[in-house]
Write a structure and sequence with these properties.
The chain is of the alpha+beta class. It folds into 2 domains: 17-78 and 228-341, Zincin-like, CATH 3.30.2010; 85-158, no CATH class. It has 7 helices and 14 strands. The protein starts with 16 loop residues before the first helix and ends in a 10-residue tail after the last helix.
Length: 345
């Protein structure tokens, strides 16, 4: 399936994650929520920037488009380019550098930008443009063999604000990975529809049940059940709840829009909250079940609006607003939500 371009949401720095986790899931339904304030995106080995399509790439099939709602979705964002991409070579005077050759043939270099020093790995190739890549190891640059160091470092200087910002984001992710994970045992807690609920095992229950007054999920497991058993039961229940609740909300908002979707399924995508294809197939990430209903409704409305507009134009956002007027607050919350702090399943 040929896919239309995707828009991305930039994460916000982490701030007092533990307090935010505690407060947000105690909030009541329907009220704007302020979720954890760290990064939205899941760690990847490298984060690709949009790059121009190849001249040989086939034309987009207009009858089979698909638009996605990435974790990084932020339609109003107009800041630095995405993390990996192409910038045309330019000319300038060389900046101060030092260099040493690494085992893979790349060279480790240093450039001084104002009062800041930046180390980067430079590899030459037959490509036609200068490519940037930032991951947990820092900045890597791949450049044509004919491009001078002055050209490369001029390009670095032009994008230095974006580079330092992304390097800071990766450092924050390293700190996030040190946060404690859920200890899956009796009394373990996790988020469900914006609330914190707890697990009860060894109660003699013969079937799984959830008490929405006490926010306790009783599992039909023995007191000595291992962590994997408990986690699997919780995940299975969450996914069944997601299937039921998302399906109900799709019907509600499809009626508001006066449109029909053809099929609906859950996804476990690592890069988007939902997607809608031009033939009416909708997929929603099951982990949305951790969020309050206002966030779920926003994503549902967002994907259904693509049945009218397969883009993120002003007309598209007017379509979203026509069926979900509060979309701006929900979009802001989702944009700044730290995915890394959701339970690991």
């Amino acid at each position: 399936m040929t896919r239309a371009p995707r828009s991305r949401v930039k994460p916000a720095p982490r701030a007092q994650a533990a307090d935010a986790v505690s407060s947000v899931f105690q909030s009541s339904r329907g009220v704007p929520y302020s979720f954890f304030s760290s990064f939205l995106r899941r760690e990847r080995k490298a984060e690709p920037m949009q790059k121009p399509p190849s001249r040989q790439r086939p034309a987009v099939a207009l009858n089979n488009l698909q638009l996605n709602l990435p974790f990084e979705h932020a339609p109003a964002f107009s800041g630095p380019a995405p993390l990996r991409g192409e910038v045309p070579p330019t000319e300038s005077n060389p900046a101060p550098t030092s260099s040493k050759t690494l085992s893979d043939g790349s060279r480790m270099r240093r450039i001084v930008l104002g009062a800041r020093a930046l180390d980067y790995r430079l590899k030459r190739s037959s490509r036609r443009t200068i490519g940037f890549c930032i991951d947990g190891t820092g900045l890597s640059i791949t450049a044509p063999r004919w491009v001078t160091i002055a050209d490369i470092e001029n390009a670095i200087g032009d994008k230095q604000n974006w580079i330092f910002k992304k390097l800071t984001e990766w450092q924050t992710r390293v700190e996030q990975r040190a946060l404690p994970r859920i200890d899956w045992k009796d009394g373990a807690t996790f988020p469900y529809l914006g609330k914190t609920i707890s697990v009860a095992i060894g109660t003699g229950a013969s079937v799984l049940s959830f008490d929405d007054q006490t926010n306790v999920l009783a599992l039909p497991l023995p007191a000595l059940a291992d962590a994997q058993q408990i986690k699997d039961r919780v995940q299975s229940w969450l996914q069944s709840e997601a299937k039921r609740i998302f399906g109900e909300q799709l019907v509600v908002y499809a009626q508001k829009l006066g449109a029909d979707f053809s099929t609906y399924a859950l996804s476990s995508a690592a890069t988007r909250w939902g997607s809608c294809s031009s033939d009416g197939k909708i997929r929603l990430n099951w982990r949305l079940i951790h969020f309050p209903m206002s966030i779920i409704d926003y994503v549902v409305a967002h994907e259904l609006a693509h049945l009218r507009e397969m883009n993120h134009s002003p007309r598209f956002w007017r379509t979203v607003e026509s069926i979900f007027p509060e979309f701006r607050e929900a979009r802001h919350t989702l944009k700044h939500h730290p995915l890394d702090l959701l339970p690991a399943f």
